[in-house]
Design a protein that fits this description.
4-stranded antiparallel β-sheet, single chain, Alpha-Beta Plaits, alpha+beta, 2 helices
Length: 118
């Protein structure tokens, strides 16, 4: 089995805030989706959400800017790691991600071990 990181990216248009009911439904959808992955024994790491309000970007030349979001229109919301036989299977899991219903997308990347030459 291989491990793949599912990176959740999203952008939030200014003034576009979901209602409490929409947030609750989204949370329920996420919990059900994650529970389904875990039930299949394919959840290698439940990952973490990443802050939208606290972050810095460090660049060469001792340049430090506020968060990644000052220079991009989308941001990384968080990630999980799944364990599947193929990238196609990881993509199939990503296709069911609730973030797709709110304008986000999922990047699927293979975790490369030190001895992996791919």
């Amino acid at each position: 089995m291989k491990e793949f990181v599912l990176i959740f990216r999203n952008s939030v248009p200014e003034g576009d805030k979901p209602s409490p009911e929409q947030m609750q439904q989204l949370l329920t959808d996420w919990m059900n989706w994650m529970g389904g992955i875990a039930a299949q024994d394919k959840l290698a790491d439940k990952g973490h959400r990443l802050s939208m309000s606290e972050g810095k970007t460090v660049k060469a030349g001792d340049v430090v800017t506020d968060g990644p979001y000052t220079e991009v229109k989308e941001f990384i919301n968080g990630f999980i790691i799944v364990r599947t036989a193929t990238i196609e299977e990881a993509v199939a899991i990503a296709r069911e991600c609730p973030i797709l219903h709110i304008g986000g997308h999922v990047e699927v990347r293979k975790v490369v071990s030190p001895d992996d030459q791919s």
